[in-house]
Write a structure and sequence with these properties.
Layout: H1 5-17, H2 21-28, H3 32-39, H4 60-76, H5 85-96, H6 102-116, E1 133-145, E2 148-159, E3 165-170, H7 175-189, E4 195-198, E5 205-207, E6 214-215, H8 217-226, E7 229-232, H9 242-255, E8 261-262, H10 265-282, H11 292-299, E9 315-320, E10 326-329, E11 332-335, E12 344-349, E13 353-358, E14 361-367, E15 375-376, H12 383-388, H13 397-402, H14 405-413, H15 418-431, H16 433-442, H17 451-458, H18 481-487
Parallel strand pairs: 1-4, 1-8, 4-7, 11-15
Antiparallel strand pairs: 1-2, 2-3, 5-6, 9-12, 10-11, 12-13, 13-14
Helix pairs in contact: 2-3, 4-6, 5-6, 15-16
């Protein structure tokens, strides 16, 4: 008898309380055999035993006949004219006098076909010509960026002939990062291969997959400029770009362990660039005769040259500088110098940076933020305004966001108040905050350090090397009578 889960639960709960099977059966109004079946939890009402029976009627002779049909199909090699399970059954009835059911033969045919199949191989050994292709892929890694645990995206690339590698990290795997990463890749390899192998990620593919994939409009434009062919893999076929699939894990284990701690992403990318150069110089792949460096040297002449015009990989907008001297890009704000207030500027979003352009001149650069509602201020953009409005100095967001608490505390202790703090900020911008604080720390604690005192340390007298000269300079006597004779002078 099949019971519902709520009845089953009541049986099990009653069993745990020590209630007898008779009592449970009476209370729930079901039979005692049913209670007995589920009482100790040895079975479950939703479980069903699979029905398996190896019919005696499928004899060795029948199996042999089925295999003969398979062999005949193989020899004929006509794809659309092969034995179906029904056809085999019909022939068995007609030629062998088989008396069993069609479903029995169907099961036997299916089982024997499975045995005949060749197991798929994970990877097929491939060979590439120099400069023929590069494989690219995205991975993920965790780093400490300004002491904050951050997930970044690793762009990995590998030349198919030499197996030379390239790895960089980005805050997002968006279109801007994708194009910028490939541009850097061409710079690193010193040229462009004939084709680029990638999966069907939306950042590259608009619709379709594999050979039917349609690239995104900007990616098509990018590939046209750098003159390479696009080769997209089939869905769930990582083995089609196995070289770079392995690199994703290799780079994470070898370049990013222990977890890197860095103040900015540019510094980390420079380290990764250097790691890739070391890999090129020293790595030798097992099973290959030559080193990566030797094969890369062979491959380099086959790479196409990089065009002189640099494709703009950014996502650009035109924005007006607001009254707080900031511009909005997507959902965040970035500061510019106050002299550009209410002017129209171009904001370019790259993978990791934001650059603000006014009349073909870059006026500001920021680290790109991907969350929302954040404003990035740079103190140098506001220092001229703060000098005109010194009373705002301790409440100004550009000050609070960019200077340390140690500097703010010192500024509040200065005898000149707000104006002295503004002077101190100017010194920090000119010489660096850490250097100014080091000078302050070097002053004895019994002395209250002022801005003028710090200036005296900045303007120490220059040591001019002394040139020692002899006390007496020898002078040879000259007979001037020779000049008098030459020019007809009267000699007295």
């Amino acid at each position: 008898m099949k019971i519902e889960v709520d009845i089953y639960k009541e049986i099990r709960m009653g069993a745990l309380r020590g209630e007898s099977q008779r009592s449970i059966a009476k209370r729930l109004g079901i039979s005692r055999p049913t209670v007995k079946k589920y009482y100790d939890g040895s079975s479950h009402p939703e479980s069903r035993k699979s029905y398996e029976r190896d019919p005696d009627i499928v004899t060795d002779e029948v199996k042999s006949f089925i295999l003969e049909c398979f062999d005949l199909d193989k020899r004929e090699n006509v794809k659309k004219q092969k034995h179906t399970a029904k056809k085999i059954y019909d022939r068995l009835v007609k030629e062998k006098g088989f008396t069993g059911g069609e479903s029995t033969i169907r099961k036997a045919v299916k089982a024997l076909r499975e045995e005949q199949k060749v197991p798929p191989q994970s990877n097929v050994p491939l060979s590439y010509e120099p400069g023929e292709a590069v494989q690219i892929d995205w991975g993920e890694a965790t780093v400490y960026l300004s002491n904050e645990k951050t997930k970044l995206y690793t762009f990995c690339a590998r030349l198919c002939y030499s197996c030379d590698i390239f790895v960089q990290v980005f805050k997002s795997a968006n279109e801007e990062s994708f194009l910028e990463a490939q541009q850097r890749m061409f710079d690193f390899f010193g040229g462009i291969p004939v084709r680029l192998i990638f999966d069907n990620a939306k950042v590259a593919v608009k619709e379709g997959f594999g050979i039917y994939a349609k690239p995104q409009k900007r990616y098509l434009s990018f590939s046209a400029h750098y003159a390479f062919n696009l080769d997209f893999c089939n869905p769930a076929k990582g083995n089609e770009k196995g070289l770079v699939e392995n690199l994703v894990g290799y780079s994470r284990r070898n370049f990013l362990v222990p977890i890197p701690r860095t103040s900015n992403i540019e510094e980390l990318n420079q380290r990764l660039w250097d790691d890739c150069l070391k890999y090129r110089e020293k790595h030798h792949i097992a099973g290959r005769v030559h080193s990566v460096k030797t094969m890369y040297t062979e491959e380099l002449p086959y790479l196409s040259s990089i065009p002189s015009f640099r494709f703009d990989t950014s996502k650009s907008i035109v924005a007006t500088v607001d009254d707080y001297s900031t511009v909005r890009y997507e959902k965040n704000y970035y500061s510019v110098p106050t002299k550009y207030l209410r002017k129209e500027v171009t904001v370019k979003g790259y993978g990791n940076t934001i650059r603000v352009i006014y009349q073909n001149t870059e006026i500001a650069a920021h680290s790109r933020a991907y969350h929302s509602g954040h404003t990035q201020y740079q103190l140098e953009h506001y220092i001229d305004l703060i000098e005109k409005k010194p009373r705002s100095v301790f409440n100004a967001k550009p000050v609070k966001q960019n200077v340390t608490s140690e500097l703010l505390k010192w500024g509040k202790e200065l005898p000149g108040g707000n104006r002295e703090m503004v002077k101190l900020l100017r010194l920090c911008l000119d010489y660096g905050e850490e250097y100014i604080l080091d000078l302050k720390r070097s002053i004895p604690s019994t002395t209250a350090p002022s801005v003028d005192m710090i200036r005296t340390y900045l303007n120490k007298p220059v040591n001019v090397p002394t040139i020692k000269m002899s006390k007496e300079v020898p002078v040879e006597p000259v007979d001037l009578n020779q000049y008098d004779k030459k020019y007809g002078m009267v000699v007295h």
